[in-house]
Amino acid sequence: MAKATRTSIVTDMKYLGREPEFSSDTVLGWTDLARNYNWYNHFKNTDDAKQYLNEFCKANKIKINISNHNTNTFGWVARMIPRGAKLDESTLTKFKDYLSTLKKPSKNEVVIEKKEETPQRQVNRLDQWLPDFEEAIDNFKGPFSAYNYLTSNNVPQMYAKMIQEHYEPLYNEIKSAYNKEDDQLVEAYKVHRRTELKALMLFVKGIVDDCDKFLSNVKKERKPRKKREKSVDSLLKHFKYQQNDTALKLTSEDPAKIIGSTSIYVLNTKYKTLTVFHAKNGETLSINRTAIANYDEKTSRTKRAGRALNKVIDAINNGTKKSRIKVIDTIKTDDAKFTDRLNDSCIILKVDK
Question: Most buried among 130, 153, 170, 303, using CB within 10 Å?
Fold first, then answer.
């Protein structure tokens, strides 16, 4: 980053403010984080980020190799935490993971580098099958099925593709000679009578086609990949909710409990509305970014609590699982507009499994 003049820094601070300071009472949301990152990106540089990381790690007795540092954002995180910033679990987990990549290995630790499959090693492995194909082409009048060979020898899909790509140019070359499209190729293959040249062309074409058939069948027979289940941290990455409300003296349930639950009760402290989410029959609730997933649209509802707010909160928090289901029916108002998305004004009152 180019060095800014004092005049430009003063001007920028007029609009962007001085270095952020934080209150430890509130977890920073994604908007606040982005605003703070923007401040540091504007006024600070990579050397500053390294310095902040070093200071943080020294204070917390974490040994790192700072030369591996490559992401300034975590330098800003290292600066914000000592200044009172309270970060969400997802950001803290990423920060810890990043620090682990910078840690120095212990003296007794042996680092084993995984050998990559180089192009040369791939060719060497291909050589265990190519001689059989070359021999078949030399005796192209004899019986040979490339498809049966690939199947019986359990040739991996990757190498079957390489065999196909190996013989496609040969087929095109013989085809050009047979059709007399290239004088040099006609001269090269004149050792074969025309009937022999046609037979050789069809034989090589059969190898290419059999490889294609084998690859197509392998794709069809392959078992469908099991859907990878997302981790809790991944599901909560974009999720928003209000952690606590001092006026109502309420604290949200852990949002991780929502995953696998059957019912949740959410209070919007801004509009004083109660929203009940019930899972679909035979399923459980989950989270999709900022929204609740797998809820039953018929039984999930929203109502404005109004003057009955405190009574409703008490019934939800102190009632039984069975009694909570009927609480929303006791609110004498019409259903309000329903949304499955939560935000910074939503307290998670209760989660039922």
Answer: 303
